[in-house]
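agent: user wants the structure for TetR family transcriptional regulator from Peribacillus loiseleuriae. delegating to structure tool.
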Amino acid sequence: MTDQSRGGNGITENEKSIDRREQIIGVAIQLFATNGYHKTKISDIVREAGMAQGTFYWYFKSKESIALEIIQSGQAQILEVVSQGYRISSATVADAVASSEKLFEDLFSFSKDNRYLMELMIKGIDSEESIKHLIFETRIKIEEAFKNNVKRAMDLGILPERDPSIQAALLMSLMEGMLARWLFGPVTYESAVKEQSVNDLAKELVKFEFFGLLG
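agent: tool returned. relaying tokens verbatim.
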């Protein structure tokens, strides 16, 4: 790439294009989460992004196409975080607890940094069937990743033999419930959930995951 392709601030046209595209995506996620899919118009997205409407169509075919890309990208990122909990070798229960804490710390950190994306994933949106289906598929794949982690821990003798599908469903429900209350509420005035740090929340969830109410 030659210096002539760079602007005065050292940013290439390609980098500017990527920035504009990411800006449109960021605005769309926020508007879909706060206003709803059907109530959000392309004109709303470009106005909030400070761009002409033609700029939107340079990067995306339609409102549905940008929503699908948002969910597909989010799915890949979340699955990457959850899949890191897959164990390769045997370990003690204490090691498994520490690994699970790290997994949920990463997941909660990602959720905090991508609040609007997680709101779409957890709460869902009234949208086209293709988008609803992709959100549903994402949640199924996350639960499947939890199931693989649990089954692997059972195979290695870290966890007792139980139905991994049930364990994964319980874990998924626990995770979604805590995330929803932590990020979006509502919580009662005496609840301390929203004040929990990422680390504290992960520790409490994993303590319940391994030891239940007796933990």
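agent: one observation worth passing along. The CA atoms of residues 121 and 202 lie 19 Å apart.
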